Amino acid sequence: xxxxxxxxxxxxxxxxxxxxxxxxxxxxxxxxxxxxxxxxxxxxxxxxxxxxxxxxxxxxxxxxxxxxxxxxxxxxxxxxxxxxxxxxxxxxxxxxxxxxxxxxxxxxxxxxxxxxxxxxxxxxxxxxxxxxxxxxxxxxxxxxxxxxxxxxxxxxxxxxxxxxxxxxxxxxxxxxxxxxxxxxxxxxxxxxxxxxxxxxxxxxxxxxxxxxx
Length: 213
What we know:
Layout: H1 9-24, H2 38-47, E1 53-57, H3 65-70, E2 75-80, H4 83-93, E3 100-104, E4 116-122, H5 131-144, E5 145-156, E6 163-164, E7 167-168, H6 174-181, E8 185-196, E9 202-212
Parallel strand pairs: 1-2, 1-4, 2-3, 4-5
Antiparallel strand pairs: 5-9, 6-7, 8-9
Helix pairs in contact: 1-4
């Protein structure tokens, strides 16, 4: 079981939006595309070796799952709300796609059969603007991450864009993310990154690494 079956109108609208985005664009056509997910890989490797169970939240057309498999990670799960994103990601990975577990689900309702050692989220949380959505995100994180597990969370930084893919976003600093996650999570590291879109536009990201108590 990967979800709680708690479909709402807002979630259906979100799914429709992302199906269109991924249906109309290849991986290299979107602003968040990276030729190499260097920061993600560095933080994942810092958080644990190839034996850890990794969940990539909002995998999109999967710039991270393939490089992790190539580095010997044996337990990689890639999750996205969009079926189109997952299908395109599988095509991109070719034979390596069978080494990844693919899950089509809304992270807010996620209830994995077994919690993960490492949670990776590059640019999903900042789309959740309201208090209820943000609380559900944190509840999902707690529910699906083992005690002592680590969470890599990246959002647009305070000096980053105010919109992405036609949607408003909520920008965060490291302290904002610590306040959101609460006392159950200790901030281990934080860094500011300027990502360049495929057309050269700078986007400021706030990266954080947390450990669950």
